[in-house]
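INFO  loader      accepted 1 record
INFO  loader      residues=976
INFO  predictor   begin
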Amino acid sequence: MGERFWGDVPPATPVSPEQAVALVRSAFGVDGPARPLGSNQETNLRIDAGDVSYVLKVANPAFGHDVLYLQNAAMRHLAAAGLRVPEPVVAPDGSDVVVTDIGGSPHHVRLLTYVAGDLLSDAEHLAAPVLDRFGRLVARVAAGLADFDHPAADRPLQYDTRRAAEVVDALAPSVADVSRRTKVLSVSDTAWAALAPLAHDLRTQVVHADLADYNVVAGRDGDGRPVPDGIIDFGDVMRSWLVADLATAIVSLLARPRSRPVQDARAVAAGFHGELPLTHAEVAALWPLVVARATVLAVSVDDILAADPDNAYAREEQPLDWRILDRVADVPPELAEEALRSALGVRVSDRILAAAGWRPEADVVDLDHDPVRVDLSVRTDLLADGAWTDPAAARSSVAGALAGRTGVLPHDEGRLTEVVVDSAEETPTVALGTTLLAPVGTPVRAPSDGTIRAGADGSVVLACGVVDVVVRGVRATVAAGAEVVPGQVLGAIDEAAEDSPLPPHVNVQVVRAPGVLPPPYVEPSLADAWVALCPDPVSLLGLFPDLDVGDDARGVLARRDRVVATVQEHYYARPPQIERGWRQHLVDTRGRAYLDIVNNVAVLGHSHPAVTAAATRQLRLLNTNSRFHYDALVRFGERITELLPDPLDTVFFVNSGSEAVDLALRLVRTATGRRDVVCLRGGYHGWTTAADEVSTTLNDNPRALETRPPWVHLAPMPNVYRGEHRGPDAAERYAAELSSVVAGIEGGPAGFIAEPMSGNAGGVLVPPGYLPAVYGTVRAAGGLCISDEVQVGYGRTGSHFWGFEEHGIVPDVVTMAKAAGSGHPVGFVVTRREVAEAFTAEGSFFSSVGGSPVSSVVGLAVLDTIRDEDLQGNALRVGGHLHERLRALVDEHPLVGTVHGEGLYLGVELVRDRSTLKPAIAEALAICERLLELGVITYPTGDFSNVLKVKPPLCITEASADFFVDRLDEVLRAGW
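INFO  predictor   done
INFO  writer      dumping tokens
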């Protein structure tokens, strides 16, 4: 019986698990329980026979047995080529297709080996490397079938994309919703109009024809990401266009909540092209094939439900298939093609070549002088102190910079005024067109002969043959359909909208794809494709030809790699180029905003006006070294000692935390006349020689434990989550171990150094009672105690200004930096007068920039702001809320082992097993990469690099904290 082309296919034959068990036993000699698997038009059940599993496939009576032999042959062929696919089980009678009676009629049944693994469709998010692997797998299938053929391969089937338009026309009556039916027919016609001229140049062979994510089986990589490596469901195998399988793979991705159709298509196509290069025609046909496939899916699912309203599988798929159609229909096909060509390195499209020679014959705007270049890029000086977040403030700043002159804003610039913070989605920030800032009423003219395609309030579209010219920001004086000549007035510059960050202006675009209306701003990830379609139109305006918008991030990174030591690392494999910060946010050069969850250096938030003003004013007055006498150093020292308990009354000014620790170690050694120091295993205190000696975090130095000098003595980190002691007596037991270390030091220790909360371990809290006991032990042995507050001081814990205060202790020496300057190199050491005076035995002390006039006034501004803006209180309130929300993730996601810390110094520890606490190292890094895509910056820390740092600027809001937790929850749920 021949297989039907489309429509009128009867429902799949129901087979109960009990029937399946009996059928498989009698036909194939295999015994085991059965459970149903989903399918549209046939019946599938999984059979588990001990350690081996199979799939029983009961063919729809409407389909002929010849196609079953085709499918079996194709699977065997690919298996021989090394692909992981199901393989037919041969029955005792030697056949791999068995005819048996089901419900009183003969049915063809097969038993296939089960391909183990998760379906790729089960992962809500697929990272770019996974999409690349997916594309490569699709290419391997195409290459594997290139030399395969079968007499039944030429069967007519509705999923043969060569027949897509015919299928849509035939099945559209099954679509009950009239608006949907009209849309799918229109979209189908457009796709086929693009495909028809290319059809004769597309390679044809036997293809899988349903290489969707739900037919791809994946294992797991070391980082927990899926690895596509298996293919199932050969029910649609036929002869068709080779590239159709790639289109099918792309379409299957597009129902996901955060799917980005063009970007996902680029990633999959790049993988395919890397294995099996596409031809020029295939690249041109790929997006129309994606659209055609989407139209067929939409009408087919409605057709199935029309025939079988109870088909639960189809009912579940219906909204997803129509979502895919809506998404692909919203993408200009010309944009998709240029994006694919760019990603694959295939020559430009014919439309680019055709339009390349077009030139204007008249200027769009009459100018009597060159306009002023106005910088609204991320690096601009115009929009300081967050003015870019307020359209009215931005407009005022721009108008002030113009001072009545004409201004110009360049094409392809990441525009700061368009930046959106706390957004998981990439937002349109790259200007697509050149903008001229000029008075209201300035005439706007036609650059060449053409026809007005559209003329409405605010915009005019002029068709000029191979290009369109789009002018926005005008009061049009021409109507649609009018013919114009070069220089003819099209309208005049209009008032700017109330919510515009710009004063009156006109935006001009040249479009190499007539009929496509580009937006004024586009997402950075598609800017290259949009720019190919919409080149720089400066010549239209009679402007100077070069408005450089700066280096791209990759170019700057390559330059960095040439001149900067590789050991001076950077975050992320492909880091964004960050050039601006404001409060708790960072912005890259293309206008993508990121929530900064990792930057405890900028304690006040980025670019705080108080720090900027203090440093700027002082730089105008004086900046010199601290051997000179000036007031700011004294005032800063007084403020610091006022914040510390007695007897901490004497300050040394330095540049950094490492220098502070280095000096603190020299102080205790000089004061005691001893050299040996006790520190905690896994602690971090800096990079100078002395600071590094007492730093043993494996995250920063994998060889730390084996390279300590003999005068450094390690005690266990009192980690009640991961350490040896975890019960209620943990503090006492850890303190006893440190006491043993101290007792073993001949002559006694010079001192003990520790953070009151272990920062680089991930904000690990020291158990109550531990530090008081340890301080008592060290002091009884004649040593001094150093509290390293560099990471956790200055109100970060919320409950106290200094970390040591929470433990009810007073150290002999305090070190501080980072937050003290909110990004400026400010650091200090505070101790008792007698300890400081003992240091005179080492000679004088001097730090060139430490305590300089600028450093001192910056330090004062930081302290004033923490007080005036109640940032310690904010750390307590927002930190408590953030901690509570993160703790809830422990109950939701097995990967989250615990949440460390307090206030706004927290750590989310990721583990693969909560019993063994095996660290989820690769997963942590991959999760951070995914969070970056969603607009959040954090990074792993801890000895195993499995703890996510959560130490944002103290100004972070509750809304931003929620944004972070929501994104982390999403990643843990949807994948990374």
